[in-house]
Predict the 3D structure of the following.
Amino acid sequence: MLNYVSGHRADTPQDFAELALGTPAELWLGVDGESEAERAARLDAARDILADPEYRTLPDDLIRLAARAVEEYPELFNVVPLARPARRRTAGRGVAA
């Protein structure tokens, strides 16, 4: 079965996120190994997009999308605390009599 969102084919969760946001997630999150110049250009492009009237509600839309994901898929966010290792106590070193 093929999945389509607004007439665009979505094959992966990343495709769905990109179609929901209207922009690639990498624009907002960055990519591993990007240079300072690439980061500056990415952030500049993001600022330009947020200045566009069509995308002014994007931050609010993202918050709503995240809240909906937490509500609809709580199992994705189950956090299990890790057991803390017991502290080792070292015997005090006294002066031998």
Notes: Strands lie at 4-5, 8-9. The CA atoms of residues 1 and 11 lie 10 Å apart.
